[in-house]
Amino acid sequence: MTSDSATIVALATAPAAGAVGILRLSGPAALEVGRRLAPGVPASPTPRHAYLASFVDAAGAVLDEGLFLYFQAPRSFTGEDVVELQAHGSPRLLRLLLARALEDERVRPALPGEFTRRAFLNGRIDLTRAEAVADLVAADSEAAVRAAAAGLSGALAERIRALETPLRELHADLEGVLNFPDEAEGADAEAGPRVTALRSAAEALRAEVGRGRLVRQGARVALYGPVNAGKSTLFNRLVGEARALVDDEPGTTRDALEARVEWDGLGVTLYDTAGLREAPGRVEALGIARTRELLAAVDLAVLVLPPETSLEDAASWTREAGATPVLAVTGKCDAIPGARDTVSAVLPSPAPPRVSGLTGEGVEALRTTVLTRLWGGGTPSAVALVSERHADALRRTAEALGRAEAASRVSTLEVLSGEVGLALEALGEVSGTSVSEALLDTLFQRFCIGK
């Protein structure tokens, strides 16, 4: 697959007023068209040198003054000739420059993600790095930024290569034995253990998909429990501002409130939910129904219980979360300082902290415990951003290797080699060594135009 011969153009900055706006061209006519907009630039400009230039319209009237940069193929992001015009960030000015570039019949508007797609097709980056570009643009937490940057520098690509290279070597050895049995005798030795090791590596990468989702999208955590347990006060304390109404009257919260915070670089969406109780009013009952729906969708449910809740009630509230993991805490610990803590008897040791949204007691310990339950150990930014697409390809890789493992014991060499080939093809969908145009279309549609 190769990119077409058209020169593409797009605005590389948002279509809003700002200090700087960038027009980007890539393709064989990029330099000629760029110089038409900035005729004062030398015919053979020095690559990677910034020229102060006047940008003109078709009549030669000056529209703006800015910077002209030329990146010569193949030493550019796309692997083609690339020109960037850095003008003042007037949306109207940038549209005039864009229209001027499109007057040339060799130039067309870039499609979403087409600059990055050309970089992939021209061998400048592999598919994991291309996807990391979109992850970096969409990142909305420190962990997401750092993890995407690691992907862009090749962290995931290296792990995929560490799996793909020996898998390709194994497939070549097996095919060699099948096609040239005399010359390649013994090349299939230890094929079974090699397949087992490769399958384990594929499963290890696939296991990181959950962490990758948390980094990309952030975690979802809901506070729930009986009415008047201190959920809203705790919610306000965790958020750092008074987002939820607080009153002594039970059932104050009628709907789920939502707030975004960032803890240790990980984005977390907190929900304050309507308290659960029997025989509520009609509006409150709608809130309770919404609470139950939300509990099924979050990553962690924090059960806030009043002091001296009975073990039976605590167990009953825990069951309300269904399959969602539960972290139970004793709320309002300031109300009765010596209150008996029954929560520790409900969950395994170590017991989560007693908290007070009013005084802040135990809140920092609660944040730490929540992050531990969500993430386990390590640093969120160090995770490989394994996506759902990657997970599906790795699942098929592992399944094919599982069949190959069985074939190495009970079947023919042809079957073994065939399954290894299927595993290699599935893994190639992650690295981009075996990928269809349709899949590329789907992947790059989520990119912004100009990237």
Automatic annotation (TrEMBL):
GO terms, molecular function: GTP binding; GTPase activity; metal ion binding
Residue positions binding GTP: 228-233, 247-253, 272-275
UniProt cofactor(s): K(+)
Domain G residue range list: 220-320
Record-listed E.C. numbers: 3.6.-.-
Domain annotation GTP-binding protein TrmE N-terminal: ranges: 7-124
GO biological process, one term: tRNA wobble uridine modification
UniProt keyword Cytoplasm, yes or no: yes
Top-level taxonomic group: Bacteria
Subcellular location(s) per record: Cytoplasm
Pfam families: MMR_HSR1, MnmE_helical, TrmE_N
Cofactor comment: Binds 1 potassium ion per subunit.
UniProt keyword terms in alphabetical order: Cytoplasm, GTP-binding, Hydrolase, Magnesium, Metal-binding, Nucleotide-binding, Potassium, tRNA processing
Record-linked InterPro entries: G_TrmE, GTP-bd, GTP-bd_TrmE_N, GTPase_MnmE, MnmE_dom2, MnmE_helical, P-loop_NTPase, Small_GTP-bd
Residues annotated as binding Mg(2+): 232, 253
Record bears the keyword Nucleotide-binding: yes
Binding-site positions, (6S)-5-formyl-5,6,7,8-tetrahydrofolate: 24, 84, 124, 451
A GO CC annotation given for this chain: cytosol
Function: Exhibits a very high intrinsic GTPase hydrolysis rate. Involved in the addition of a carboxymethylaminomethyl (cmnm) group at the wobble position (U34) of certain tRNAs, forming tRNA-cmnm(5)s(2)U34.
Similarity annotation: Belongs to the TRAFAC class TrmE-Era-EngA-EngB-Septin-like GTPase superfamily. TrmE GTPase family.
Record text on subunit structure and interactions: Homodimer. Heterotetramer of two MnmE and two MnmG subunits.
Stated name of the protein: tRNA modification GTPase MnmE
Source organism of this protein record: Corallococcus coralloides
Highest classification ranks of the organism: Bacteria, Pseudomonadati, Myxococcota, Myxococcia, Myxococcales
